[in-house]
Amino acid sequence: MSSKVFLQLQGKATQASRVVAEYGSSYYKQVLEKNRHYVQEPPTAEKCSLLSKHLFYTRIASIPGRYETLQKELDSVKQIWKNRQALRVEDAGIAALFGLECFAWFCAGEMIGRGFTFTGYRV
């Protein structure tokens, strides 16, 4: 990286840190006050641990309902597959576009994971 680019980057970082130092505290207080009703009292590490356990076990308790929903979705896909002769071109096109979109998001995620490169090698 050239020194000119480095100096520009350093200047931008310095400017950003000044803005954060000047407005960060007031923004933090404003957001906290606006969302005060979400804060559990007393705001301690023990309370955070308790809430974390609540979230974990609540999610575990929701698994049977999610599984039932998944089974219903799979049954509807099986039913569509059985009646595929009656499938309209529009429905097939929508399914193909959905599959293409999923593949595109997968590819984008792979590129992001490799550091925004196509081959995996950085120059």
From TrEMBL:
Show the GO MF annotations.
proton transmembrane transporter activity
Identify the InterPro entries for this entry. Answer: ATP_synth_F0_gsu_mt
One Pfam entry name: ATP-synt_G
Top-level division of the source organism's lineage: Eukaryota
Q: Answer whether the UniProt record assigns the keyword ATP-binding to this protein.
A: no
Write out the entry's keywords from A to Z.
ATP synthesis, CF(0), Hydrogen ion transport, Ion transport, Membrane, Mitochondrion, Transport
* Annotated TM spans: none
GO cellular component terms, A-Z? mitochondrial membrane; proton-transporting ATP synthase complex
Q: Where in the cell is it found?
A: Mitochondrion membrane
Q: What is its main location?
A: mitochondrion
Q: Which family does it belong to?
A: Belongs to the ATPase g subunit family.
Name of the protein in question: Mitochondrial ATP synthase subunit G protein
